[in-house]
Write a structure and sequence with these properties.
Elements lengths: L5 H8 L3 H16 L5 E2 L11 H12 L16 H15 L8 E4 L1 H13 L5 E6 L4 H8 L3 E6 L9 H7 L4 E7 L11 H18 L4 E5 L22 E6 L12 E5 L6 H14 L7 H10 L6 H18 L11 E2 L8 H10 L2 E2 L1 E2 L9 E4 L4 H6 L1 H12 L1
Parallel strand pairs: 1-10, 3-4, 3-5, 5-6, 6-7
Antiparallel strand pairs: 2-8, 7-8, 9-12, 11-12
Helix pairs in contact: 3-10, 4-10, 5-9, 11-14, 12-14
Length: 397
Amino acid sequence: MSLLSAQVQSYMERSSWIRRMFEAGIELKKQFGEDQVCDFSLGNPDLPPPACVCTALHEIADEADQPFAFGYMPNFGYPHVREALAREVSREQGLSVAPADLVITCGAAGAINAFYRAVLEPGDEVLCPAPYFVEYGFYVENHGGVLKTAPAHPGTFDLDVAALEAAITPKTRVVLINSPNNPTGVVYPRASLVALAGMLTKKSADLGRPIFLLADEPYRFLAFDGIEVPSLLPLYPHTVVVSSFSKNLSLAGARVGYALVNPALPGKEELVGGIILANRILGFVNAPALAQKLLAKTLGSQVDAQIYAGRRDAMRQVLDAAGYAYPLPRGAFYFFPQAPGGDDVAFVQLLLEERILAVPGKGFGCPGHFRLAFCVGENVIRRAEGGFKRALEKAGK
């Protein structure tokens, strides 16, 4: 008899392909050496944090002998951090955000879970376009919900608003989008978001209750070629934005992010209060004190996005030289090429034989593609060119 619940047993059986490939990479590196493996499996930023993070850590260390230096604070976070974050988010989103509109959380994942805990009834549906980040399904099920998907436009992976509309039912409570997108790198254009907002306004009226639009935005800072990442807040009042500082400050393990309730949302105080309570009763209590203090001293800074732009160019050159088909990512740090032969799991195995780690599209609800994370050194990307070519040749045979 298993010690685990049936649900967790099933989760372990279909556990994240990302983690599986990451763990396979650990074994390959042990066997052949770190410099003989090209690991594109995990979106774990390798760039060091900006210099201001080191300076801030020293300053915080000097304050550590004060009473309650890292003690409890309000569940929404330190008030002074909330105020500083409101100023920064106002700049990013292009409209005025008050501190009372924000809850500081344990990363974007903590924000998503607290939001779902606050708004979902058992059986409620969360709808998102596919492909999507694999953990989304687990987060919804944590709170008795059901994840439903609708396909994005094939080839471009832009939003298919008609497909989303067709998938809405009386149980739909939330539509979830992620732009810039993991795993495709697509940035949804303003026209698509305006169409989405219009559709949700109409469907909410039909249902007699609002459908929330949840925008997951940890890659907002990383858009290439001057492309716009439009704010959803002016487009749809029932928008909630979640984000983190895992990518732009390279603080993935610090676990600090936020939930932002649209200032224009009717009754926003009730929703913010619900998220704050959920943040506590889920066991997060509050975002880590040290990470919050770091945030207050480093907001407005970020890693050098041009380094990622150079890596995108390098990966494009390598994939083009080998003959792969893919949409050029406009943001984030992922490519999502077509799997030669159509079987993404089999093709990822061919790459593994070449000591190249990728993630099957099946893990993102989109078989027939595979994901490559280019948050690695350019030398790793260049070194993989021969292996990409040989895997493609094997697939052809």
